[in-house]
Structures are given as structure tokens and as C-alpha cells.
Amino acid sequence: MTSPLTTPAPRGHWTPRLWGTLLVLCAAMFLDALDVSMVGVALPSIGSELDLSTSTLQWIVSGYILGYGGLLLLGGRTADLLGRRQVFLVALAVFALASLLGGLVDSGPLLIASRFIKGLSAAFTAPAGLSIITTTFPQGPLRNRALSIYTTCAATGFSMGLVLSGLLTEASWRLTMLLPAPIAILALIAGLKLIPRSERDRTHRGYDIPGAVIGTASMLLLVFTVVEAPEVGWTSARTLLSFLAVAVLLTVFVRVELRSASPLIRLGVLRSGDQVRAQLGAMMFFGSYVGFQFLVTLYMQSLLGWSALHTALAFLPAGALVALSATKMGAIVDRFGTPRLLVLGFALMVVGYALFLRVDLDPVYAAVILPSMLLIGAACALVFPSLNIQATNGVDDHEQGMVSGLLNTSVQVGGAIFLAIVTAVVTANSSGGSSPQAVLDSYRPGLVVVTAVALAGLLITATGLRGRRTPQTTILVAASEPAPQAARKTRERQDDDRVTVRD
Questions:
Q1: What residues does the Major facilitator superfamily (MFS) profile domain cover (predicted)?
Q2: Rounded to 5 degrees, what are φ and ψ at 307?
Q3: How far apart, in whole angstroms, are the C-alpha atoms of residue 490 and residue 428?
Q4: pTM (2 decimals)?
């Protein structure tokens, strides 16, 4: 839905206010990604100053993941029901305060608590921000361009976080915690002025409180179990019982959602093949990349002896390639469609990961590492925007927050699950001794798993290429809408669309 304030000018030119709105939303997504990548390099300094054990340090990272991944479904639906602008701005303010707290505390538990609160706030800003874009920019070339810029900012934030953390940690680890605060405050001030007011969803019939409680509990327990499994053992009674409890909670959640008049997730959206491919693709995409980055960081710093800054610069070509493609991706999606780009992107990812298997203890960066980084950067530039566009196309405005939360949940859960699997595989193959060659040999099976996950993403997204001879626009309509009203909305959407959306 567009308003007079946000309606683009003729010939597709955006008004200054529309650009300002997009930049505020991009700043929030940039901060989310920046915060994830910055903290990893600072962990040794944090542990030394606060006298924290390795297991405690893990929760500085895991606390953020737990809050973020566990509450995304609730955050997305809350944005739909209570107003996207209100939810986004309140959560952004909480993010800023938690950043200040994290940079000032002198206690491990308080630092972990601040990280959990930041993850919780990001669980509301991410789906709210994405749904503001999809309800402000009409479906088609304008939205594709906006989403390309938005998702590129996330990739850029992640890449810059690696570099900035190396520089800031040299002075103090506290700067890595404090840096997001002033950026968040500036974005909040600008957002109060620029982001158009959004109406609440007046069509819902009450609040799905049981679904919200059970859904949030199941996601929190799933993320917690996966994060802890490498430490306590995948076959331990605690892990197995936790997974059983997750299965029970998810079963109950599905039954509740099927009976709810206003569900947290309308399961009917998953009847779309494109929607299912987008969700599964997001899991495979982020899960493989997080596992790859984890292994490569260990390889470069522990085996090659590179500094944190040197390691960050090694990853930089991939991030730079994503940033440079930002303004072009919208037009590329318009021309080729998301299914083809997803297949091409995952294919590049598979090749990039496979090429990295050639590394040894004395690699030539330009010949061995750089080709993988460039291929993976190109893959991210194609896959990340395409996933967001495919997941949100054809979805009614009042469900955009829900779908955005579902997509971000797939990203975070995929990252947690596959990182834990990669860690377990490396640990299981690390009994060959402590020599550098033995350690490198233990990393290779993990890289094989990463490559296999990307290959699975390629096979899943490739199913979207079948039966695409005739362009077809698909609109997902809430099951409760009368048929005449649904048909009228479909015709209106088709008149506005300037890009082919394939089923």
C-alpha cells in the first residue's frame, strides 16, 4: 500500500522522503549485520578483561542468536497487528540502549543480558523494517530495487563489521559494543520524521496469544538446543529430550494455528511453492555461509597466524562485490526473475566452497583464496535479494510482517543448525593430533558439509525452474476473504505489477 507521501514520482524517480525512509530502514538492517560480525573478533579481549571462561564467552554470541532467532515470528506478527512504524521505532530505541549497556558493563552476565536484549530488539526491527518496504513500494521493479539496496546493506554491514572489529578491538573491545548506539540513535531520530505512519491490521479477530507463547517457546528451545548441542553432546539425554520437546511444541503450535481465527502464522502461505523454496533456500544459504566463515576464520587465524584485521581484509572482496551490485540487482531481477538467479547464485556458491578445499598451510591468496571469495560474493549478491523478493511477492499487505518474520527465522535457524553441525563434524575429525596439518585435515570434512548444504540449496531452488513457459502472477489471499473481494484485489495487483512473479 502506498501513501501520498511515499508515492514515487513519475518515471520511477523516488522523492527525497522516500529515499530517507529507505535509508533509515537500511541503517537498522546494517546495524543488525554489523553487530553479528563485530563481536567475534573481540571475544578474546572480552574474556581477558572480564575473566570469562570459554563457555561463558560463547553465550555472548549465542545470547544474541537466542533472542533474535527465538522471537522473530512474534516480532513479524506484532508489526502487522500493532503497526509497523511503532514496532520498528520502539525496538530500535531498545537496541540503542542495549548497545550502551553492553559497552559499559563490567560483568559477564550483564554483557550476555545486553546481547540477548539486542537480539530481541533486532527480532522486531528486522521483520518490521522489511514489511515497511514491501508495503511502501509497490510490487514490481520499484520494490525489487528497494529490496536489493536493503539486503545489500545487510551484507555490507556484515563485511564492514569484520574490518571495523579488527580496528576497534586494537583500542578497546568496548568500542565494538558502543559503535552501534550512536548510529541507532541517529536512525531513530530520522525515522520519527521520515517513516510514514502505518495502520494496524483491523481485519484480525483477536490475538493469537496461545500461538505466540507456544511458537516463541518452541523457537527459543530449538535455538538453545542447537547452540548447546556441540558442548553437551548431540546424543546426550539432555539434547535428545530437548529436541523431543521442540517436536512436541511445534506439533501443538501447528494445531493451534490451524484453529486460530487470527494465527501467528497463517500456514496457508506455505502452499506456494515459491514461498517454500524461499524459506528452505534461506536456511541453506545462511547456514552454509556461517559454517564457511567460521571454518575460514579459524583457518586463517589459528593455522596461518593472520591477524584479525588481515583476516577481515581477506573476506573484504566478497563484501565489496555485494555492495557494488546494490543498484543493479533490481533490474537484473526484473529481467531474469528470482528462480533463475537463485539457481545461478547457489551454483556459484557450490563452486566457491568446493574450490576452497584446495587450501594448504602455505596458500597463495590470489590463486587459492581470492577466487572463492569472489564467487561467494557474487552468489550472495544474487541470492540474498532474490530470497527476500520471492518470499514477499504476492503476499497481502496485512501479512507482510508475518512473512518477513518467517523468512528471518529461516535464516537464523538455518545458521544455528548448520553451524552446530559443521562444528560437530570438525570435532569428530580432530583426533588425528595437534599438528597444523592434522588440524587442517579436520577442517576439510566441515568444508565438505558446507558445500553439501549449498548443493542442497541448489537442488531445492532448481525445482522452481519447472513449468515456467507462461508468465503467471500469483497472489496469496487470506483464506477468510470472500471470493469476489479476493478477485478484485488480484486484478488491482496485476494492474500495478510491472514485474512477472512466477509461481
A1: 21-469
A2: -75, 170
A3: 53
A4: 0.76
